[in-house]
From TrEMBL:
One of its GO terms (cellular component) is cytosol. This is NACHT, LRR and PYD domains-containing protein 3-like. Residues 169-193 are annotated as: Disordered. The gene is LOC114642525. It is found in: Inflammasome.
Length: 1236
């Protein structure tokens, strides 16, 4: 790797991992203390500490073992050969290899072990690691007493001889109940087998609470999927502290006590109950949690059964005895005498029918006190009962709001499986590493299913289906599932095929099961009781049917406890699938009522069910399941697809990007290309700016867009994307003509992901915007390889602010000169290319193969030295360049003078030249004037704003403008230090018979009234062709308005746009201006009067102008003037006139209240209203005003398309009312973009 490449890689790495000064300062104290703490330990003690932390250190080191090894090699602690050997072992064995590395270090002398710890401290300062920070805090705070703390945590709790027998009985009972998992022998096989817990258990990723930013409308599994994707992409080890289950109850650094109240959250099927079983299993084996003499597990679903009328209250002792009959012993009270040695686990708070009660109680409670169960549990958490005991509660996120989180010592979240854990699960499930790897590889190729594998229950279902698939001979296999619906259809088909002879009324039983499933989805119920729901839905009488019993073992998990039997679907998504399926099987399924319910529910509970409804409406599904179930209801499918199509069309017309993504999920499940093409079309512009997209979302978008065949534009700007996201979007990107990915956190790795998109023979992409991403030299070099491919059709490439240097210019030059290069536009602004880079780029510009027409090198650190090369490129015979932007470079007069040589060349084709803020003065004006007056000069647009040309420079420049050869149409002289003295020369130029100037920008120059008065003489001249004039910030007053009015009403006036904002015109000035506006000669269409010290007094004149018979005014900007309600009311009289042609009106910060809303409403609903855009930001809006405004917007006469409202108070009500109106209008086929 070259030195430049190494340097770039380092800068890239630092920029991604950069930490705030505050973070570094916080760590500095810790890192200074740590060496003083570690040094005094004896070698033997240090080895014990290192052994204790080994798994956690291995987790930290594995992230970047290279840096640790380099650190140790640099200090000669390790030789280079030893470092390479350890690195190779880590690459081959993963975390086990890292633990082996630590073990080998521990075999060396004390100095080496100390050096390892010191290296970890040094790396922590450079790169964040919450886990390493925690380890250092524990060691630093523990100091000399750390070993005692460690040894105490490993020692079992002392057991009183009196309860020793009960302890051993309990440990044996827990061991027996946790040592196995029940598992199906194979999909479709009703037999179950006991699998050793350890053979199937795969470690889950558990972290401290992670941020939640997603709308509550999202389904909880979808939210976790997004969080999971974020964490993988943002490097989990940098962002979150991982918690191993054995750490849950340990003391946190800075705390005086162990964690007594612990809450673990996780979505359905993520592994909460399995984690609880692991805790119980490890305790019973004696490997972990030995400070607890007794561990008690209670499931909230069982507590529901105990909360009965016959026994509404019970003491804690009774609760324990009901669950552990062998503890029905007088010695139980002795056990409860030492609460600090007790762990109570309550699993599944979300399944509990009561809310926990945290109302303050003054007196402590006793284990014999009779209490309602929810009070009993709450009292343990509040520590008013058995103070000192430890409580663990598991729950889905949906029930977190029922907890008093202030009382929680530790909150953890289960994220499920990360990529390496997914593979491990597959290998364990298949029992054959090779077959498991093969199945996993097939899942990796399916973006949707692979992303779902974060959830262990999904993993189980996927493995179940694929095990059957891969056990079938290859020549007999059908296609593997692609969508979630296909996965569950195949899952169900396998089961039904195996049980098809066991019951004649399969369909009827499935309908009952589906209705119960739907009831559960609608009421957020996961647990079904044999004497309640199973009975209600008619399933209890047929529990003994062979079909149902076999079927249930594979669909429902059966659990007998406390004289009851409970049933749960193996996964929430399986429940949702069965619920959706029931509407296709039952002719009286109430599909219409269901669709109404889906419309009204916004909390996400029906989201996955809706996807299944869409996915089941496919002929292939009818064929697959129809073979075993009989005919499906095609009418249901038509109803649902029509509803999906309607919802999609409404979403595409609206502004809710999340809703668009949501309907795309439904469309994806249908796999109905015709439906997708008909609904989305090919001319649509899709916008997902500033959204959070997971790889799963990207896969769905990629697939849906690919079905369209062609899409006009896809904008994902300010959306964090990875190379994985780009790869999953690829099928859709190929079909997009214009793709905008500004500031998407793309890196070098992402550039290679574009290869398949841009080089595909059927690629439609002609424009790609990657601006604002750290692509660096290596990324652009990769892009340039793609540009040289003969299949690449890209014409426009934008790379502004991409961290580029001169190092990429050779590759760009080569790409431009490639024989089949299609590129016509290249934007490189905001990159530090320097003169050397620009000079190298010019070699490509001179190539006969180069087709570039537009080039931006603004803010590229250029100076005069590159201008000779640029001049040469412009004058080359093969040059096709028509637009060049060199703004914000210190070219100076000498550079621009040199550039003008090229502009004067007969081969030069430049029409538009931007030289903003280039450090120019009067000295270059002669050369510019000469370039303009050259007989073959093609220059039509020249922007010189922000240069100190001054009056004398403009006077000299104007000579060229008067030349008969000058073709200049647009001239920018904004902020060029001009005064009234140059206006005579400008007047002469614009009134010259050869003048072709149509646009002139003179804003931010102190022209004053006298200067503008002189300029107006030119505007009145018959030769003047000026259409657009900008005089903002020109120190004007009312005294120049009469002259301006005269110019507007001149017989030959061509002025269509006039900007006078930020001048002190006052009411009297606007009154005079309005005289010109009312003239039949006036052609003004756009007038800007922002902040001109206007009041209500000028509004009558403006109203009169709007209603003038020949008024052409279409845009009026009056923001930042104190017009008040009376002024706007007067203005509305003109808006209601049949002569008024106004389309855009800005009234931001005009001192408005609800009092003007009636008049505005009347204007919007007027029969002749043409208003399409209205801005009312910073208005004092009450409910009454909103109501009146909505009446006007609701009118069929209203043509408004965009409305900006920013109320100064009552924001929530305004938002609610306007959003409701927006949705109402969309349903009626109208669309108004309302921004609140």
């Amino acid at each position: 790797m070259s030195e430049d490449a190494l340097c770039e890689k380092f800068v890239s790495m630092i920029s991604r991992k950069r930490r705030s000064d505050e973070d570094i300062n916080t760590l500095s104290g810790l890192t200074q203390k740590f060496p003083k703490v570690i040094q005094p330990f004896s070698h033997e003690d240090l080895l014990k500490i290192t052994e204790y932390y080994k798994p956690y250190l291995a987790y930290v080191i594995e992230y970047d073992i290279t840096s640790i090894l380099q650190n140790l090699a640099t200090k000669n602690i390790l030789t280079n050969d030893e470092a390479k050997r350890f690195k190779a072992k880590e690459e081959h064995e993963g975390q086990a290899g890292v633990e082996s590395f630590i073990s080998d270090i521990m075999k060396m002398d004390n100095a080496v072990v100390v050096s390892l710890w010191e290296a970890l401290v040094e790396e922590l300062v450079r790169f964040p690691s919450p886990n390493m920070t925690r380890i250092l805090e524990e060691v630093t705070e523990g100091g000399p007493d750390l070993l005692k703390t460690i040894q105490a945590s490993l020692q079992p709790a002392p057991i009183d001889t009196r309860i020793q027998g009960l302890h051993e009985t309990h440990r044996g009972g827990v061991s027996e109940s946790t040592r196995t998992l029940e598992d199906q022998a194979s999909p479709g096989d009703p037999r179950t087998r006991a699998v050793g817990f350890e053979t199937r258990y795969t470690e889950l990723m558990v972290i401290k609470q992670y941020k939640r930013t997603y709308s509550e409308r999202l389904h909880e599994l979808e939210k976790m999927g997004r969080t999971h994707a974020e964490l993988i992409e943002e490097r989990t080890k940098e962002k979150c502290e991982r918690i191993w289950t054995e750490q849950l109850f340990r003391r946190s650094p800075g705390s005086d006590t162990d964690s007594h109240i612990v809450v673990v959250s996780g979505v359905a099927g993520i592994g909460k109950t399995t984690m609880v079983q692991k805790i119980m299993f490890d305790w019973a084996r004696g490997t972990q949690y030995q400070r607890f003499a007794f561990v008690f597990l209670f499931k909230f679903r069982e507590l529901n059964l105990l909360d009965t009328e016959t026994e509404p209250q019970m003491p804690l002792t009774r609760l324990i005895e009901r669950h552990y009959k062998y503890l029905n012993d007088t010695r139980l009270k002795d056990i409860l005498q030492k609460p600090e040695s007790l762990l109570f686990i309550f699993d599944g708070l979300d399944e509990y029918k009561h809310k926990l009660d945290f109302t303050q109680r003054k007196f402590p409670l006793n284990p014999d006190d009779y209490l309602p169960l929810h009070i009993l549990v709450s009292s343990l958490v509040r520590r008013t009962l058995l103070k000192g005991c430890t409580v663990l509660i598991t729950t889905r996120p949906t029930a977190l709001d029922t907890l008093d989180m202030e009382r929680v010592d530790r909150f953890a979240e289960i994220l499920g499986f990360f990529p390496e854990q997914r593979l491990m699960y597959f290998k364990k499930f298949f029992g054959d590493a090779g077959r498991g790897s093969e199945a996993f590889q097939s899942v990796e190729e399916n973006d949707i299913l692979y992303t779902m594998c974060f959830n262990p229950s999904y993993c189980w279902i996927i493995c179940s289906v694929l095990k059957s698939h891969f056990m079938t001979p290859e020549e007999e296999r059908g296609a593997a599932p692609r969508t979630v619906t296909e996965l569950f259809v195949m899952f169900l088909h396998n089961i039904l095929t195996n049980h098809k002879r066991e019951a004649k009324d399969q369909q009827e039983i499935l309908v009952k099961l589906g209705k119960m499933a739907y009831y559960g989805v609608a009421n957020r119920t996961l647990v079904f009781y044999d004497k309640f729901e199973m009975s209600t839905f008619g399933l209890q009488p047929v529990l003994s049917f062979p079909f149902l019993s076999g079927f249930l073992k594979e669909i429902l998990q059966r659990e007998s406890t406390l004289e009851h039997t409970t049933y749960t679907f193996y996964h929430l998504t399986l429940q949702e699938f069965m619920a959706a399926l029931s509407f296709y099987l039952d002719p009286s399924g109430g599909v219409v009522e269901l669709l109404v319910k889906l419309e009204s529910c916004n909390d996400g509970r029906f989201e996955i069910l809706t996807r299944f409804l869409a996915g089941l409406a496919r002929p292939s599904v009818f064929k697959t399941l129809g073979g075993v179930l009989g005919e499906f209801k095609v009418k249901t499918a038509k109803q649902i697809l029509e509803w999906v199509k309607k919802k999609t069309e409404v979403a595409l017309r609206g502004q809710d990007k999340r809703e668009v993504l949501r309907v795309c999920q439904w469309l994806y499940e249908t796999q109905n290309k015709k439906l997708i093409r008909d609904t989305i079309g090919k001319d649509l512009k899709m916008n997902f700016i500033k959204m959070t997209l997971s790889p799963l979302d990207c896969a769905v978008l990629g697939s849906v867009i690919s079905c369209c065949g062609e899409l006009e534009e896809l904008d994902l700007s300010w959306t964090q994307l990875t190379s994985e996201c780009i790869m999953r979007l690829a099928p859709g990107l190929i079909c997009c003509r214009h793709v905008i990915l500004q500031s998407c956190h793309l890196t070098t790795e992402c550039c290679s992901a574009f290869s398949s998109v841009l080089t595909a023979g059927h690629s439609e992409m002609i424009e790609l915007d990657l601006s604002g991403n750290d692509l660096w030299v290596s990324g652009v070099s990769e892009l340039c390889k793609i540009l040289r491919d003969p299949n690449c059709k890209l014409k426009k490439l934008r790379l502004w602010s991409c961290g580029l240097t001169s190092g990429c210019c050779s590759a760009l030059s080569t790409a431009l000169s490639a024989s089949h290069s299609p590129l016509t536009e290249l934007d490189l602004k905001g990159n530090e290319l320097g003169d050397s880079g620009a000079i190298e780029l010019c070699e490509g510009l001179r190539s006969k193969n180069c087709k570039l027409e537009k080039l931006s090198l603004a803010s590229c650190l250029l100076i005069s030295r590159c201008c000779s090369a640029l001049s040469s490129a412009l004058s080359d015979e093969y040059s096709r360049l028509t637009e060049l932007d060199l703004s914000h470079n210190e070219l100076g007069d000498s550079g621009v003078t040199e550039l003008c040589e090229g502009l004067r060349n007969t081969n030069c084709k430049i029409k538009k030249l931007k030289l903003w803020s280039c450090g120019l003065t009067i000295r270059c004006c002669s050369a510019l004037s000469s370039a303009l007056s050259t007989s073959h000069s093609p220059l039509t647009e020249l922007d010189l704003r922000g240069n100190g040309l001054k009056d004398s420079g403009v006077i000299e420049f104007s000579e060229g403008m008067r030349s008969k050869h000058c073709k200049l149409e647009k001239l920018g002289l904004w902020s060029c230090s001009l005064t009234s003295r140059c206006c005579s020369a400008l007047f002469s130029a614009v009134s010259d018979e050869h003048s072709q100037l149509t646009e002139l920008n003179l804003s931010q120059n102190e022209l004053g009234d006298s200067g503008v008065t002189e300029l107006c003489e030119g505007l009145r001249n018959t030769n003047c062709k000026i259409k657009k004039l900008n005089l903002e910030y020109c120190r004007l007053t009312s005294r120049c308005c009469s002259t301006l009015s005269s110019a507007l009403s001149a017989p030959h006036s061509r002025l269509t746009e006039l900007k006078l904002s930020y001048n002190n015109l006052e009411d009297s000035g606007v009154d005079q201006l309005c005289e010109g506006l009312r003239s039949e000669n006036c052609k003004l269409e756009k007038l800007s009067l922002w902040s001109c010290d206007l009041t209500f007094r000028c509004c009558s004149a403006l109203s009169s102008s709007l209603s003038a018979p020949l008024s052409p005014l279409a845009e009026l900007m009056l923001s930042c003037n104190n017009l008040g309600d009376s002024g706007v009311t007067a203005l509305c009289e003109g808006l209601r006139s049949e002569n008024c042609k106004l389309e855009k009106l800005s009234l931001t910060k005009c001192g408005l209240t609800s009092a003007c809303c009636s008049a505005l409403s009347s204007a919007l609903s007027a029969p002749h209203s043409r208003l399409t855009e209205l801005s009312l930001t910073e208005i004092h809006l009450e409910d009454s005003g909103v109501t009146e405004l909505c009446e006007g917007l609701r009118s069929t006469n209203c043509k408004l398309q965009k409305l900006w409202v920013c109320p100064l108070q009552n924001t929530k009500n305004v938002k609610r009312s306007l959003k409701s109106l927006q949705e109402e209008l969309i349903r009626s086929g109208r669309r108004i973009d309302i921004s609140v």
